[in-house]
Amino acid sequence: MKKVIKVGTRSSELALKQTAMVINEIKKFRQDFEFEIVKITTQGDALIDKPVSEIGGKGVFVKEIESALLKGEIDMAVHSMKDMPYEIPKGLKLMAVLKREDPKDVFVSRDGTQFMDLKEGAKIGTSSLRRQVQFKALKPDIQIVPIRGNVRTRLKKMEELNLDGIVLSAAGLHRLGFENVITEYFPPDVVVPAPCQGILAVEIAESFDNIFQEFYSYIVDRKTFFEASVERELLKAFGVNCRQPFGAYAQYRKEKDEEKINIKVVYQKEDKLLKSEVTGLIEETDKMIEKLIEEFGGI
């Protein structure tokens, strides 16, 4: 008899797609497991009329799922890692899985106009403070209109609210097969992504770790693992949440026998938007983070 693993997830189209991606990858190597998907509604899913920064920050998308893990109602959960607070409840473990999807932010224009060519006063939909400050820095005359909801909902709101465009993540659109709606990609040099944007994570109860380790090696990607680890360290070091604009992107690369990491950070301190980057060996990550904080004049 096959072992049945209960997998918790939010119920949106994207969350279910991402959960299926993880399950299907495991099945390639372990046909002796069966999976049951358990849909869980989180506070963040229920309260879609308010910005995330006003209803509790990142944790609003995961608390109910983590509660189910701790109660033993599910064995593992699949998350977008960018939704995860740095602090994980005692008794749980969080691990990056699969290869990172494109981490960039993208602009979806209602009529195909490029972002910098928009008329003065153009209305742009996004509730992310990180996106708001960076896109306003690029084009100060735009108007920001807060919108939330799943990908289809946001695309619909663009039409209903007569917005000139909206800002989304490339990763979500790619995974749903919506690449055709993207007008423009913004590289991390221009708009720094949210920490762990494009990365999927599996969260488990420690009691499930022995079973999880039987297949974790099949679904972990070395480059993604390092990038996620560094970006979550940046979250911790800067002590930020959804109430403060913050972006971080770490790009791992191997040169001969050396493993290097390039770190880009954007950080709002008081009324100033600060941006910097640093490159070094992966084992010097802590020193690089300290250098960034020092460059910003502390946090």
Structural notes for this entry:
The radius of gyration is 19 Å and the shape is globular. Strand 6, helix 4 (129-138) and strand 7 form a beta-alpha-beta unit. It has a five-stranded mixed beta sheet. It is of the alpha/beta class and 299 residues long. Helices cover 32% and strands 27% of the residues. It has helices spanning 13-29, 43-46, 63-71, 129-138, 151-160, 170-176, 209-219, 222-238, 285-295; strands at 3-9, 33-39, 76-80, 92-97, 105-109, 123-125, 143-145, 165-169, 184-186, 200-205, 246-255, 258-269, 272-281. It folds into three domains: 3-98 and 199-220, 3-Layer(aba) Sandwich (D-Maltodextrin-Binding Protein, domain 2); 105-186, 3-Layer(aba) Sandwich (D-Maltodextrin-Binding Protein, domain 2), CATH 3.40.190; 234-295, Double Stranded RNA Binding Domain (2-Layer Sandwich), CATH 3.30.160.40.
Short synopsis of the structure:
With 299 residues, the chain is of the alpha/beta class.
- Broad shape: globular
CATH architecture of the largest domain: 3-Layer(aba) Sandwich
Average pLDDT reading: 93
pLDDT under 50 segments (min length 5)? none
Provide keyphrases for this structure.
single chain; 299 residues; alpha/beta; D-Maltodextrin-Binding Protein, domain 2; Double Stranded RNA Binding Domain; 3 domains; five-stranded mixed β-sheet; 9 helices; 13 strands; 27% strand; globular
